[in-house]
Each structure stands twice: as structure tokens, then as C-alpha cells.
Amino acid sequence: MSNISFTKFNFRAILAAAAVFAIAALIIFTLFMPVKTALVISNYDNGTIYACFDIEENAEFSISFIHSVNKSEVREYYNVYDYDIYLEKCLYSNFGAGVATEIEEGQTLSYTDDGKMLISGIHRKIDNLLYIVGTVSDHILYINEKEISLRNLCDRNSPVKFCKESVSRFFIWRNAYE
Predict the structure, then answer these.
(1) Which residue spans within the chain are E strands per DSSP?
(2) Eight-state DSSP code of residue 72
(3) pLDDT tens digits, residue range 15-41?
(4) Is 98 left (phi over 0), alpha (psi -120 to 50) or beta?
(5) Sheet with strand 108-111: strands edge to edge
(6) I need a labelling partner for 111 at 20 to 30 A (CA). Which of 23, 75, 89, 137 fits?
(7) What is the Cα 10 distance to its own chain's centre?
(8) Rounded distance, CA 101 to CA 89, Å?
């Protein structure tokens, strides 16, 4: 009889260990499996992650800056489709060196109430969305109803890369911008 109870004890211990292992594996799988879509901002030179933002398909974000040549404000609007980033429209304060002077087929030029020029209908895939954060004036990221100084986030003169990635819940928790 003592052999039977010892066998039942081993069987129960094995079942309990298997259950604990299965639960632990499920938790790890849930935390580390890439299931969320995020806009990841990193240092282009060394890969340091500055922040990530949970985004949905077709999400819009924009970046504004003072153009280094013509010294006027520019705001570029992007959308994310699949794993690609597309430039959709640009808002200019002034024409001049370094900004678009002609529109291409399918694009439209309109004027805002405050006299700025808006070129829309661009829909140009950007393979590597890179910016160098300004040393004189800042770059501002507008995303998820937030306005974020890239100078404060990344530091002046940082080479910054924007990309859409499939990431884990842990990655977002660890790198999310608050």
C-alpha cells in the first residue's frame, strides 16, 4: 500500500510541476511575443531606443521643425500602413531654398486660414525616416495627442530613426513614452 501512495504522490507532483511550467511558459509567451504595433524611435548610429508609441494601422504622426536654410516652420505628416511609413502631406510657412516649389501629379496645393501652404496627396513611401535633432531649434513630434520635444527626448544633434515594428508587450512597457 505504501508503494501506491508514493506513486500517487509522484504523479500529483509531476502534474503540479507541469501546470506551473505551462503557466510560466504562457506568461513568458504573452509578454515577449511580438503582438503589438509600435512606432519606435531610436538612435540611427548605435540603436539606442529613445521611445516607442503604441499605434494602430493608418495612424498619423507629424514632425515640425524650423528649416535650416529658409528659417521657416515646416511640418511633415506621416501615416503608417503595414510596416511602412508614408509621407502624406507637408505644411510650409514660406517657399524658398530646400522646400518644395512644384507639386507632382496627384498632389494638391492649398492655403490654410493663416496663409501657410499645404501640399497634400504625396503618399511617398519613406524607407528610412531619419532626422538630425536640431541644435538651434527643436524638432517636435506630434503623436497620440502628445507634443514631444525630440531635443528633450533624444538630445541635440542626435541621428534619430523612426520605424514601425511589431513588438512585444514587454518591449512597449520597457520603452513606452510617458
Answers:
(1) 36-43, 49-54, 60-66, 73-81, 84-92, 108-111, 117-126, 129-132, 140-143, 146-149, 159-167
(2) -
(3) 888 888 888 778 777 777 777 788 899
(4) left
(5) 108-111, 117-126, 84-92, 73-81, 60-66, 140-143, 146-149
(6) 137
(7) 51
(8) 14
